[in-house]
Amino acid sequence: MEPFFRRYRNPLVLFTLLLVQFLLLALQVRRTDAGISTLEDTHDGHSVRLLRSWTAAIVTPFERILQGSTSGVRYVWGNYLDLRHEHDKNKDLEQTIDRMRLEEASLLEDARQGQRLQEQLGFQRQYIYQTRIAAVIGGSGTDHSRVLYINKGSSDGVAHDMAVIVPQGIVGKVREVFSHTAQVLVINDQTSGAGVILEKTRIRGILRGNANGQTQIVGILKDDRIQPGERILTAGGDQIFPRGLPVGVVKKVITDPDRDEFIDIIVEPYAPLNRIDEVQVITSMQPVFSPEAQQDINASEQLKGPEAQAIREKSIEEQKKAAAILAERLPGLTDPNAQPTDEPKPADTDIRVKPPLRPKHQDNFSPPGGESDATKPANHIPQKGEH
Amino acid sequence: MLPDDPRHNLVVRRFPFQVYILIPLVALVLQAWLPRQHYLSVTAYVDLPLVVTIYFALSRRNPVQGMFMGATLGLLQDAMTHQAIGLNGITKTVVGYLAASVGVRIDEGSLLVRVTLSVGLSLLSSALYLFIFEQLLGLDKEWHWQTEILRGLGNALMAIVFYPLLDRLQLKD
Predict the structure, then answer these.
(1) Tell me, what's the ipTM?
(2) For domain A50-84+126-286, which CATH number applies: 2.60.120.10, 1.25.10.10, 3.40.50.2300, 2.40.10.340?
(3) Nearest CB to B82; choose among A37, A62, A185
């Protein structure tokens, strides 16, 4: 027996090592109801998670040191360059802050109105309430897996599936959390997915990565309105990214290689995905303004009160005009069954429904004479024998 | 030209114990860190753990050691990704075994041999990875063969640069 093992030692060790690893692989892959194989990517098994955790514990301290030293050198050099143009920059920034305060104050009214309307419609928009800044310390090192490692983990309040952004746009979502580090799945990975919407055409799709590391929206029906340069925003339906965050712009539209009637949209992301040093993890979303945001808003109102008031009044005037025009064009907006109120309506909001014009001659398209169908309420259900 | 009894005539390189720990660790850390530096993003087309596996397997001419080195590095590399753990482990185990088996029969000190082996084993590693991913696991993946050739050439370049440096770390009798 011994000579057999000695003679075939190498193939036997190879077989054993491969067998163990194949078993490990088999534990991580499952088959969906549709018969499609998929990785257990949302929740790793205990042993797999442990291995990832140990590896992160071994590798990330060295990455922190490397990242810290290069950041230090860049910081010193950057400071030197910044100092040279500090005065001009300050002046520009002050002007920008002034302009933004004015804009913020004027937009505040729109935001409040939006909130009121949303409450009335019974759904909530979630505002980013709290973020945590984290430094990117490393990646996976392979283009088969586009992930980043950040220097904040569960001890800092980071949790699974939290959105990760930079000021320019979205970056990805937290996939794995360790005590002091976390793994972020970047939007240009082939297994990532984010619900997005095209700003002008309002076409929705799912953003994911391709083999070249580009971001793309796949499986969209052909539409000539989609043109390069159109902005893409988060749609908010994926329960990870809040609605309306910038994603990128349409770079080009190509025909789906597998299906002629579909197109793929190659997206140029706003966030510089390959050279991010710092990110923000959205740790909390609430349907209210944060204390800091509220403080900013108050400051804006105080500083730019009269100017903002003028803009607001003008905006309200325009909204009223638009509402009146809309009401004239859409008679269905006024409920014909509504009880008349005693309160007199203001002159500029007196919206009356004009009856449709009568045809000069009888035809097949107009409602019949007498009590016209057009005068009946929209929700009127014809009874038996009634036409 | 092959020697008559290669197992006895070829030199087996030996290294201090620390080298077996430090060099793979440095390879792993650099592999995770370098591609993120935008002026070094081309290193995404290099697989440093594979280069290190091939080097130690060739130098030690011991298939078992080559397999364990490959399996360890591959599994650690997998753990750094979000993919299934074992994909790189299996490919690098096979690469370690083959490199050591070939190393027993040839003079691995020659530059041409090192470059050829690096390109060949790198392509084999990519092919194995894709085979396991798509055929055995039944997962879907988009890939380009040009990228894999680039990766093979990148690994060969790393072999040319780093193998002479690693040779300096060996113990001299």
Answers:
(1) 0.86
(2) 2.40.10.340
(3) A185
